[in-house]
């Protein structure tokens, strides 16, 4: 089954990127409306994401699952279920030039119609999300509810 792969360069330190992707406050600043996130001392935990009045249909979406691995300033891995079964999102961080190279991979989709549809949607969605993360971290600009703040 296909995997989703995206990379982007963000001109901020690793620590800033990691803090943004490993805290509820960080996710809510640039991507979600009401994320809860808990990381245990062993680097595992749970993430629950919520988007309110999302998209043209103004629906509330909730998703999330286990945090499989949280290694400060290196990697954040979690599961969620945008399709028929859980998929795994791995976000790796590497120092690059004057900032951070963010490498996102999502895997675990089946060949079912629902999973294929979710995979296509997430492939486009993660590209947009990484752009939003970059603009937020580099310029402090967020896009929510059709407003630029």
TrEMBL record:
CDD domains of this UniProt entry?
A: SRPBCC_CalC_Aha1-like (cd07814)
Q: Where is the Activator of Hsp90 ATPase homologue 1/2-like C-terminal domain?
A: 11-138
One protein family per Pfam: AHSA1
Database matches in InterPro entries = ASHA1/2-like_C, START-like_dom_sf
Superkingdom as given in the UniProt entry: Bacteria
Question: What name appears for this protein in its UniProt entry?
Answer: SRPBCC domain-containing protein
Q: SUPFAM superfamilies, from UniProt? A: Bet v1-like (SSF55961)
| Organism annotation | Fictibacillus norfolkensis
Q: Indicate the family of this protein.
A: Belongs to the AHA1 family.
């Amino acid at each position: 089954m296909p995997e989703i792969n995206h990379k982007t360069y963000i001109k901020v330190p690793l620590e800033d990127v990691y803090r943004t992707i490993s805290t509820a406050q960080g996710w809510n600043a640039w991507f979600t409306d009401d994320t809860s996130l808990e990381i245990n001392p062993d680097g595992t935990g749970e993430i629950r994401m919520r988007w309110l009045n999302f998209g043209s249909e103004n629906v509330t979406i909730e998703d999330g699952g286990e945090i499989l691995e949280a290694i400060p300033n290196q990697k954040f891995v979690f599961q969620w279920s945008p399709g028929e079964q859980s998929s795994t999102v791995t976000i790796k961080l590497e120092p690059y030039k004057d900032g951070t190279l963010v490498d996102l991979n999502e895997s675990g989709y089946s060949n079912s119609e629902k999973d294929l549809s979710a995979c296509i949607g997430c492939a486009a969605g993660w590209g947009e999300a990484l752009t939003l993360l970059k603009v937020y971290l580099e310029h402090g600009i967020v896009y929510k509810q059709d407003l630029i703040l």
